[in-house]
Amino acid sequence: MTKVDVWAQILTDRMAEAPWLATLHRWARQCASDFKTGVDGAMEAMDAADMDIALLSAWYGPQGPLITNEEVARQVDAGPERFRGLASADIRKPGEAAKEIRRWIEGHGFVGVRIVPWLWDLPPNDRRYYPIYAVCAELGVPLCTQIGHTGPLQRSETGRPIPYLEDVLLEFPGLKVVGGHVGFPWIDELVSLAVKFPDFYVDSSAYIARRYPPAFVDFMKGPGRDRVMFGTNWPMLSPRQCLAGLDELDLDADVIDAFLGDTAKRVFKL
Fold it and tell me: pTM higher than 0.85, yes or no?
């Protein structure tokens, strides 16, 4: 089985030194220098957990690019068998952002797009994102976003699934949407969206398996059997850390296979 980490990034100095990232140190019990792992560090962590592929994200926010698409492309080129790219863009110029996304998907083989709403302090149904969503829908690539509370000391409201993400799913039928970071404390809303929308998925990034909310585990065993993908949020957490306790969740073998790679392979066309 091919194991896939759907949420990872290799930090640049710009991102490692972002003020909001310092507020994550208390969660990860790391300092800024621990986050500067590079490509080799990422592959070593993947090898330690028999992880085959990681999706590496670009990050753009109102302060400018934290990890550019060009930097992600170089990271992928350094490990083309192990990495795939997720594009992002500056939404302050929506038309230019859409062209940028198209360029990296069509011209460079990126497999999806990641937009982080809390970074912009704009919920995902804000009109400035919509040209990017339209390109994702047209090209058939997933939109990856963040749901649930925000780890850094930023507002969490942008991560609430209903009504914000529901509006996107209603207005872009057929667009595959992957909500990252489990979605706590709005698990009921997450389950509601998954039942209602067949193209809504979730990833487990930023959580260790033994600390998944009980309602999330129930979701994995029920309507989320083929909707939940494994993620880490590397380098904040490693694959080995995130897998700790997975065998304690009493998941069926087919659920584990779907979770660790089969669903990601299908959704991202790996």
Answer: yes
Question: Can you tell me which residue has the tokens 């994995």?
Answer: 220
The count of other CB atoms within 10 Å of the CB of residue 43 is 18
Instruction: Return the beta strands (E) in the chain as ranges.
Output: 4-8, 53-57, 59-61, 64-67, 83-87, 112-114, 143-146, 177-180, 200-203, 228-229
Residue type, 103: R
DSSP reduced 3-state for 116: coil
Average pLDDT score over the chain: 95
Q: What is the mean pLDDT of residues 77-97?
A: 97
Q: Give the dihedral of Cα atoms 194, 142, 266, 237; nearest 10 deg.
A: -80
In angstroms, the CA 101 to CA 31 distance is: 32
List of domains in the chain: 4-267 (3.20.20.140)
Find how far residue 226's CA is from the centre of its chain: 17
Residues 209-227: pLDDT tens digits?
999 999 999 999 999 999 9
Q: What does the pLDDT average to over 72-94?
A: 97
